[in-house]
Amino acid sequence: MCKYFTAGIIKILLLTLLLSPAFVPCTAGIFKTQDTIKVSIKDTGNLQGSDTGKNQVPVKQEGTDTMNTTEVQDSVVTSLPDSVIYKKTDFTAEELIRGERLFYGLAYLGDKEFSCVICHNTTVSDTLNWNPDAFEISKKYFDKSAEDLSKVLLNPLGAKMQLVHKDLQLSAEDITLMKAFMNKFATMGMKQPKPIITNLLLLILAFVLFLISFTDLIIKKIFKNRRLNLLILSITGVFIIWILVVNAIAFGRSTGFSPDQPIKFSHAVHAGQNKTDCIYCHYTAKTSKTAGIPAGSICNNCHFLVRNGTRSGNTEIAKIIAALDSNKAVEWVRLYKVPDFVFFSHAQHVSAGEIACEDCHGDVKNTDRLSHVPDLSMGWCIDCHKTRKVNLSNEYYQRYYAEHVRLFNEGKIDSVMIAGIGGKDCGKCHY
Q: Are strands 47-49 and 39-41 parallel, antiparallel or unpaired?
């Protein structure tokens, strides 16, 4: 009985689905819905639909009680002044999307293409972009009005911005919508690149296979061929040990580390192009353990007069001046740091050892954004001590290693390695 009842219900449902298209045209006239078009008022005086051309809208003629559907004329609609548009603070989801599309260059302004992201990053990057990123600009203008943003976009002061923003045409509504999206972007932040987790996934897979094979070999014994389990255990075991050992050795090392700095400083421009001596900025390298971070007054020695860069304009230099005016230090992110249980002195290596900066820090003079070059491992230091000769003409070695200098002058030894004068002693670095 139940079986026939269920079959009958299924037949009725199928019949209803088949006949439903026939009733749709009949009921279409009963439930009428009026199509709505979102209309925005432009400075030109025309009513335009969102991302469309001119639309047909009903206009009431003066002196009559009838409504005629005609094309909107410029004489009929009065445009809102820019000062009113700039004060708008409430935006719909569609308007925010419009502002985002304008910012990303997905909406065309007339016959010209416009995109902010060509110059301003929206994702975190390890390459130096001289232009301020979108998050930085959004934070700067978060508490300012759209009119303030329009002054910078349409009438920039810096030579770099004047060149880039030349012939830029944006209406008050365009700028207001972009400002709305920028306020939203300031709360979202920069998009981080997705981490590569291939090794982690392989490690998890190998660990799961290892557990399954081990359980089957000892307890379940589903697979009667023990060689298969032994093969899986061997392969996964070697892989797991290799992953753990490699990552344990690399733990605490930061090769390739290249953090974002509060100011986009280029060593290629200063040390390479302008030939600024490293010791001029890092003046404690010859006399102290650390090379030191240059004080703002060092930067101001040049940038007291130089206020515009050929690549960055005045944006980055203005940060230095603002820090000096507010008596605040620029919070640079440290790139190199040896472990606390290791003693290292720049003075000993730069003054006594006469080691050039690029020997440890790479080709600094041709690098915009610095990264961590050596791994700072003990093996890296020992290899240097084994292969580097001591300059016995240096005053330091003549004073403290007079015997080695005498043997060298008498021709009894042809050279002295750092490892030969204590460069391999544990107590030299760990005490």
A: antiparallel
Name the band, by pLDDT with cuts 50, 70 and 90, for residue 9: low
- The string of pLDDT tens digits covering residues 43-78 is 333 333 334 333 333 444 444 444 444 444 443 334
Task: Extract the tokens encoding 326.
Answer: 């507010």
| Two structure tokens written together for 117 | 């992201």
Listed residue (213, 60, 184, 205) closest to 122, CA to CA: 184
140 vs 53 pLDDT, higher one: 140
**What residue spans of 189-250 are helical by DSSP H?**
198-215, 226-249
Residue 98 and residue 187: Cα distance in Å, rounded?
18
- Specify whether the CB–CB gap between 272 and 366 falls below 8 A: yes
Confidence at 223, pLDDT banded by 50, 70, 90: low
**305-321: buried (b, 16+ CB within 10 Å) or exposed (e) per residue?**
eeeebeebbbbbbbbbb
Interior/surface letters 103-139, b for 16+ CB within 10 angstroms, e for the rest: beeebeeeeeebebeeebbbeeeeebebbbbbbbbbb
Distance CA 75, CA 62 (A): 13
Cβ count within 10 A of residue 332: 13
Give Dmax over CA atoms of the chain in angstroms.
119
Task: Find tokens 């670095």 and name the residue.
Answer: 429
Backbone torsions φ then ψ of 280, nearest 5 degrees: -65, -40
Write the CATH number of the domain with boundaries 83-188. 1.10.760
Query: What are the residues whose beta carbons fall under 8 Å from the beta carbon of 125, sequence distance 6 or more?
Result: none
Cβ–Cβ < 8 Å for 38, 58: no
The pairing of strands 67-71 and 39-41 is: unpaired
Q: How far apart are CA 149 and CA 102, in angstroms?
A: 15
* Phi-psi category of residue 117: left, alpha or beta, with phi > 0 → left and psi -120 to 50 → alpha: alpha
Residue with tokens 């292969």: 387
Fill in the DSSP letter of residue 112. B
